[in-house]
UniProtKB/TrEMBL annotation:
Stated name of the protein: Aspartyl/glutamyl-tRNA(Asn/Gln) amidotransferase subunit C
Organism, scientific name: Agreia pratensis
Coiled-coil zones: none
GO biological process, alphabetically ordered: regulation of translational fidelity; translation
Lineage: Bacteria, Bacillati, Actinomycetota, Actinomycetes, Micrococcales
Reactions this protein catalyses: L-glutamyl-tRNA(Gln) + L-glutamine + ATP + H2O = L-glutaminyl-tRNA(Gln) + L-glutamate + ADP + phosphate + H(+); L-aspartyl-tRNA(Asn) + L-glutamine + ATP + H2O = L-asparaginyl-tRNA(Asn) + L-glutamate + ADP + phosphate + 2 H(+)
Xref: SUPFAM superfamilies: Glu-tRNAGln amidotransferase C subunit
GO molecular function: asparaginyl-tRNA synthase (glutamine-hydrolyzing) activity; ATP binding; glutaminyl-tRNA synthase (glutamine-hydrolyzing) activity; transferase activity
A Pfam family reported for this protein in Swiss-Prot or TrEMBL: GatC
Chain's role: Allows the formation of correctly charged Asn-tRNA(Asn) or Gln-tRNA(Gln) through the transamidation of misacylated Asp-tRNA(Asn) or Glu-tRNA(Gln) in organisms which lack either or both of asparaginyl-tRNA or glutaminyl-tRNA synthetases. The reaction takes place in the presence of glutamine and ATP through an activated phospho-Asp-tRNA(Asn) or phospho-Glu-tRNA(Gln).
Record's keyword terms, sorted: ATP-binding, Ligase, Nucleotide-binding, Protein biosynthesis, Transferase
Family that this chain belongs to: Belongs to the GatC family.
Subunit field text: Heterotrimer of A, B and C subunits.
Length: 99
């Protein structure tokens, strides 16, 4: 089993700002060790002669070409807006910003 310590798990939890109980630290130490062992196994199997795979099924782009079509004028776009200043939507200030 990989050498993941409870101190390392506690350090990672602190970095991630996650509060863990002592029982969770013990459990995660075991689980992370198991994950590290699996990663090591995959690393051993992945040799340079094995091509990298991003997806098991070959994919192709199924989107249509991006073609400019008919667009709205500013007046048409703002026609149904609850509030605007003539050329832009007006929205309530957020994040403590002053108007």
């Amino acid at each position: 089993m990989s050498e993941i310590t409870q101190e390392q798990v506690t350090h990672l939890a602190n970095l991630a700002r996650i509060a863990l109980t002592p029982e969770e630290i013990v459990s995660l130490t075991s689980e992370l060790g198991s994950i590290m062992d699996h990663v090591a196994t995959v690393t051993e199997v992945a040799t340079p002669d094995v091509p990298a795979t991003s997806h098991p099924i070959p994919l192709q782009n199924v989107f249509r070409d991006d073609v400019v079509g008919q667009t709205l004028t500013a007046e048409e776009a703002l026609a149904g807006a609850p509030d605007h200043d003539g050329s832009r939507f007006r929205v309530t200030a957020i994040l403590g910003e002053e108007q």
